[in-house]
């Protein structure tokens, strides 16, 4: 495998990277909308349905989007001049993505608990302390994840930090 990829290949990898990003963030936005609506519903069936759809969007958009972003991001980093650790902005995106993926597993636990509680209790779930806790955690952590995803997009566009200065990185001279 050659070190650098041709521009046309890089463009295709970037397109897929952006499509996977759209899947991930679209799923996140959808989940936030669902959890906000849950706060205003008076239907037990809607409580159950909303949490079930949150799980479906997780499986259909968020997980594949996150995995696709990671895979295409690694390929783009390795096969272009960016590298995995040459720039602070790339390192920050890697760290944030890692945190988002790990915390997504915790969010899924709360979604699963909310599904089980609303399946059994429907509207009475609104009086269950476990459900109230899960719903709050889904709102707080879901919104936090969405904010971090938006921060990653901002970092990708702005590239706010420069190159990592290290004796470990090969230095190129401008002769």
UniProtKB/TrEMBL annotation:
Residues that span the membrane, as ranges: 12-40, 52-76, 88-111, 136-157
Highest taxon listed in the record's lineage: Bacteria
Keywords on record: Membrane, Transmembrane, Transmembrane helix
Descriptive protein name: DUF2269 domain-containing protein
Native source organism of the sequence: Paenibacillus solisilvae
């Amino acid at each position: 495998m050659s070190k650098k990829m041709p521009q046309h290949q890089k463009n295709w990898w970037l397109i897929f990277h952006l499509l996977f990003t759209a899947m991930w963030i679209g799923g996140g936005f959808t989940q936030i909308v669902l959890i906000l609506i849950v706060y205003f519903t008076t239907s037990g069936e809607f409580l159950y349905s909303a949490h079930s759809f949150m799980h479906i969007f997780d499986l259909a958009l968020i997980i594949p989007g996150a995995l696709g972003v990671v895979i295409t991001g690694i390929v783009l980093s390795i096969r272009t001049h960016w590298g995995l650790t040459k720039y602070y902005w790339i390192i920050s995106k890697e760290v944030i993505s890692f945190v988002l993926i790990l915390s997504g597993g915790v969010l899924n636990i709360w979604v699963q608990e909310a599904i089980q509680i609303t399946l059994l209790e429907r509207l009475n779930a609104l009086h269950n302390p476990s459900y109230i806790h899960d719903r709050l955690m889904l709102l707080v952590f879901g919104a936090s994840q969405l904010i971090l995803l938006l921060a990653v997009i901002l970092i990708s566009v702005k590239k706010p930090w420069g190159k990592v200065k290290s004796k470990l990185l090969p230095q190129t001279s401008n002769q």
